[in-house]
Amino acid sequence: MHIKRPEKTSPECIPNLLALRDSLELLGGKWKLLIVLHISCRPKELQHFKKLEKEITGISAKMLAKELKTLEENKIVTRTIQNTRPVTVTYALTAYGESLIPIARDLQQWGLNHRKIIKEK
Amino acid sequence: MHIKRPEKTSPECIPNLLALRDSLELLGGKWKLLIVLHISCRPKELQHFKKLEKEITGISAKMLAKELKTLEENKIVTRTIQNTRPVTVTYALTAYGESLIPIARDLQQWGLNHRKIIKEK
DNA sequence: ATGCATAGTTACCTCCAAGTAAGTAGTTAC
DNA sequence: GTAACTACTTACTTGGAGGTAACTATGCAT
Fold first, then answer.
1. What CA–CA distance (Å, rounded) separates B14 from A108?
2. Is the pLDDT of residue B6 over 90?
3. Contact in structure between B42 and A8 (CB atoms under 8 Å)
């Protein structure tokens, strides 16, 4: 999907504030994109709550549960209760949620590069 | 620049937490990407402080100054004092700062689309 | 000397994202 | 009956992002 970039100084160039704000409000927190990326690393329906809690260093059960709930409400992940003993719950990205992967990877790559740039001070 | 996406479940797929965290810490706030996008809409060296303050609805002088300072420290924008009366200050994206434009636009586009998805509930 | 412009700064306040720690609930295993 | 597993939930707390409003500095105009 190629997005046409408006020309500089053209009237339509003035950014749509609300759209970017919406994204930042939903995704700008500390954990959501991290969670998305971690789920994306497993085949569908194979990412368990406990596994995420262990893999994502520093996250607490409370935050993970809260963030996953928000992601589910926003149709980015699905939550499936499995018939195992003890009960397990798996999380998977929706097709729509997968549209976040390139964005998250770009940000990740940018952050990786940024370390170098800043160290070169 | 095409970034190779690691295969699912491969060991290197486990996301580099720190890189994404760095990006989110720097750019995840309410204003920085908005400012970047607004500056990108003007030819180099033509974006004044007051202009940004007026264009970016809701931002205060304090926040704008603070965010611009952080962006400057991170080599994303340059600050130039102009010999006008009264003195004006212009901000411009560095070449490096421009690497954020596609990311900001993608997020913006994603937010625009997200509104539709969520309204379709 | 008062007002207006640009480009901030300073002091104070508020709220919430995020952290910590402990508890709940269902089930199995011994 | 108690320990252990998964998947949360609840109560309490705190740092800092962000908001508001007033103030500073400099120069020009009238």
1. 12
2. no
3. yes
Residue from the list B8, B100, B111 with its beta carbon closest to the beta carbon of A43: B8
CA atoms within 13 A on the CB side of B43: 0
Please check whether residue A81 lies inside any domain of the structure.
yes
Instruction: Please check the confidence at residue A5 and state whether its pLDDT lies above 70.
Output: no
Going by the DSSP 8-state scheme, the letter that residue A13 receives in this structure is G
User: A43: Cβ under 7 Å from strand C?
Assistant: no
* Residue B88 structure tokens: 């004006």
* B13 falls within a domain: no
The pLDDT mean for chain A works out to 89
Residue A94 CB neighbours (<10 A): 15
Q: Which of A119, A117, A114, A72 is nearest to A91 (CA)?
A: A72
- Number of alpha helices (DSSP H) and beta strands (DSSP E) in chain B: 5, 3
Q: Protein footprint on strand D: which nucleotides are under 7 Å from a CB?
A: 4-11, 17-22, 26-28
Total structural domains within chain B: 1
Domain carrying residue B111: 32-119
Rounded CA separation A77/A39 (Å): 9
Give the CATH number of the domain where residue B51 resides. Answer: 1.10.10.10
Q: pLDDT tens for residues B28-81?
A: 999 999 999 999 987 765 799 999 999 999 999 999 999 999 999 999 999 999
Distance of CA B62 to the CA centre of its chain: 17
What residue type is B109 in one-letter code?
Q
